[in-house]
Amino acid sequence: MADKERDPNPAIVYEESSGKSHRLRFAILGVVAILAVGYMIYAAFPGNTLYFLTVSEFMAGQEYQDGRMVRVSGKLMEESFLRQEDSTVSQFQLIDEAVGPGIAMNASYVGVMPDLFFNPHSEIILEGHYSPDEMFEADSILVKCPSKYQSLEEEQRLQEQEVPAASS
Questions:
Q1: Domain extent at residue 36
Q2: For residue 114, is it left (φ>0), alpha (ψ between -120 and 50) or beta?
Q3: Overall domain count for the chain
Q4: What pLDDT, in 10s, does the model give residues 106-165?
Q5: What is the spatial distance between Cα 126 and Cα 107, in angstroms, rounded to a whole number?
Q6: What CATH number is attached to the domain comprising 66?
């Protein structure tokens, strides 16, 4: 009888340890799931945290020209596109349309150019880095399609410019 007093019911002791074991497993599983989701969020952000600059901002800021990956937007400078014959190596210049043709950035790209690259109304976004030889080496090119529609203010401004010319 002394043995029964020390261990009243072995089944109850087993159930208590089994319940603690399940809670511990769920806690570990929860921590692993939270860490996995946290890592996926962290891994998704480096590509989206690249600087996005205009040509004039990029050329004025020496801190962006240290070889880090950046995105630069601008317009293709007329008659600046050069491609070696039978090659995919291209060199061109981008300008900041808001500032004008005064500030230009030399750029190069190896690959097939997008269809709308040569459209004078397209905005070009280069992703790459600035090399020590003062050339922006683009790894990828995105071309924003020009809008088919003008804003109402822009349309009114154009109409006002045409009216005085017609009355003269």
A1: 2-44
A2: beta
A3: 2
A4: 899 998 888 777 777 788 889 998 888 889 899 998 888 766 555 556 666 666 766 554
A5: 9
A6: 2.40.50.140
